[in-house]
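Hi everyone,

Forwarding the result from last night's run.
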Amino acid sequence: MWPSSAGRDTMGGMPKANASNRTNVKRKKSQRNASKRGMSSIMKLRIAVIVVAAVVVLSVVFAFFWPGWAVRKAATPSQLHTEVTSATPTIKASPLPKDASSLLSAMPDSVANFARTSAKATTEWKASEPVEEYSVVYSNGTESEDATLIVGQWATSATAQQQYDSLNGASTGDQLATGNIKVDGKTTGSYVVKQAGDGKAVAIWKNDTAVFKISGPTDSVETLYEHFPL
């Protein structure tokens, strides 16, 4: 005879204590799985934080040890002059003298929508003793928008630099742009563009032994400087 079941709970012929144990085991497994998932989420969050921190640190390092990496470049004349202009002038260029020197012959017939309307020798920079110097006018057909180019050449790059520095110092308007001129990766000079008041501007640049200065309405100066080939 089986012992009396009094005082003992049974379920399906097995003690209820065993069913309770199985429930506890399942509960513990579920808790462990939830804990693992929680730990996994925490680890992922920590990894994400570490990656972000690493990116920030690398950005700072590059900014200090790789000049210009995190610095926006200064505006160039092409950025300053956003108005779209025709690349073809509406007027014909005036011919150069038959005995024009190499320097004068290098002055282009046209620049963007401007054409050369006159070219002559000048003595504007005589005090600095250039080898030669010329005054060249460029026009787009509207006289009020004409711009004048003065170009001179010196015996050495050093004396040309002195003239550039003198012209730059004499121009006291707000600076619109500045930078270096490079030819085949080598720095051959500098440029500066400044306001000259009353809607006008001046662009000055030095390239090796030659110095250039364009003056006139701001839009005209920026267009000519932006497209000038020398």
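DSSP finds five helices and ten strands in the chain.

Cheers,
N.
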